[in-house]
Amino acid sequence: MKRGMAVLAVLGALAPVASAQIIPTFRKDSATDGRGPLDIVRVAMSRGVDGRLRGEVTMEKGWTTDALRTASGPSGSICLTLYTAREPGADPPDWLVCATPERDGDELRGRVLRDRANGLPRQVGPVTVTRPTARTVYLRFAQSSIHRPASVRFAAEAVTRGARCPRPLGCRDTAPDAPLTGNLTLRSTAPSG
Predict the structure, then answer these.
(1) Which helix (DSSP H) or strand (DSSP E) does residue 43 occupy?
(2) Domains along the sequence of the chain with CATH
(3) For 89-103, how does the pLDDT look when each residue is reduced to its tens digit (9 = 90+)?
(4) CA separation for the pair 45, 57 (Å, rounded)
(5) Which of 135, 164, 165, 193 fits a disulfide with 143 by CB distance 3.0 to 4.6 angstroms?
(6) Does the pTM exceed 0.85?
(7) How many helices (H) and strands (E) does the chain have?
(8) Is 113 exposed, middle or buried (0-12, 13-18, 19+ CB in 10 A)?
């Protein structure tokens, strides 16, 4: 009887953890198609129990913030490219969710950017950037920053700049290869984010 109660207590304690887990929608990419030091092999998106969206970009090998940093000019970036109305491959993405290096240190700065027809993308929201492993970066952001779509088609892009990278575009790797995307359906009953 005591053993049964102990098992129930453990299961009761684990239930909130299990319900908080995120099951991502993901796409894998070839480990040999990279054109720079960062080769994306997996991109995923999911919605957390708090309603925020989480993008996940995984590289073939471990990397550091220095892989994105340059001595002069624009830095490199790791971005989710999100399509909510436009067609992937035919149009630029509706939204970019990007991580770029701070001037010093290992921190990455995250931003949600909205594409504009008459200028550079405009920042519309913050992104929480974390590094759970040496190969992966998580990008968490509110659904409200991309206008709470019913679904979102997503891909990822890593841009690095170096002596062997073409100017001004830099070396780029996308996952999956354009115009392919992953698709995440967001239920209308999702918690607001």
Answers:
(1) strand 40-47
(2) 22-185 (2.60.40)
(3) 878 899 999 999 998
(4) 9
(5) 193
(6) no
(7) 1, 11
(8) buried
